[in-house]
Amino acid sequence: MENLLAIKKALYQLCVKSVEEKIEITREAIKSADEAAIHEDKNSMADKYETGKAMLDLEKEKLETQLASTVMLKKHLSKINPSEEEETTAFGSLVITNQGRYFFSVGLGTLKYENQDYFVISLISPIGKALEGKKVGETVVFQNKKFTIEGIA
Question: What is the C-alpha to C-alpha distance for residues 123 and 36, in angstroms, rounded to an integer?
Answer without folding.
Answer: 40
